Amino acid sequence: MTELKIQHILTLSYLLSKGAKHNYVTITTSSLGKNIKKSQQSASKHLLELEQNKFIDRIISGRNISVKITPKGFTEMVKLSAILRKSLDSSPSYVELKGTLVSGMGEGAYYMGLKGYTKQFQSKIGYVPFPGTLNVRLDQKIHQEAIKQFETLNGVKINSFSDGKRTYGWVKCFPARLNNLANCELIILERTHHDDSIIELISKSCLRKTAKLKDGSKVSIKIKINS
């Protein structure tokens, strides 16, 4: 039994969108090529191959081409849809990062204790964080790149505020788990002195004690993604 080829999926998808499941739709190879971002020659070849493998029926009248997807072609698209849906549904809903525990500059305790932040932490994530942040250096490029997506994701946002003298930037919080032992939050800061290789975590309790960590300890962080 002939299987549907990858290069034909866009063509069949376009035909489905035009109503070719039940009706013969009139198209041109130039318009098809434009819509699937292929050349006119490639579009013409796709139609020929799909017809030869009985995925579509074609009626040619002069320059006009009328096309209808066969039951076989539609069944193959349904199978593909089921495979994609299963893959998407089973995709892990978290990002896993690995790195090394390092000392910070001591600023975390000061900032996390500001009333403009603590009131919001209490109301939005349900607790006031332990003074200070846990700093983790992401040693591998794959993890340094993976963390960048959180800049555009919607976490729990702690809004910026002013104390009359200066303005403090916003903080975004993402629920996480450290070494499968301790619940915590990854925080993304509007303003930070760290480079892209350092991430910061906060928690209700001291993470160093809870997870029995010291500088140089290797850690794993799983961060939940709300899709």
Mean of pLDDT: 90
Low-confidence spans: none
The tally of helices reads 8
How much helix, percentage-wise, in residues?
25-40%
Strand order of the largest sheet: 4-5-11-10-9-12
> SSE string, helix = H, strand = E?
HEHHEEHEHHEHEEEEEEHE
Instruction: Using the CA coordinates, give the radius of gyration.
Output: 27 Å
Largest sheet: 6 strands, antiparallel, barrel
> Structural class per helix/strand content?
alpha+beta
Which range does the strand content fall in?
25-35%
How would you describe what is shown here?
The chain has 227 residues and is of the alpha+beta class. 33% of the residues lie in helices and 28% in strands. The protein contains 8 helices and 12 strands. Strands 4-5-11-10-9-12 form a 6-stranded antiparallel barrel. Strands 1-3-2 form a 3-stranded antiparallel sheet. The chain has a two-stranded antiparallel ribbon with strand order 7-8. Strand 2 (56-61) and strand 3 (64-69) form a beta hairpin. Helix 2 (29-35) packs across helix 3 (40-52). The radius of gyration is 27 Å and the shape is elongated.
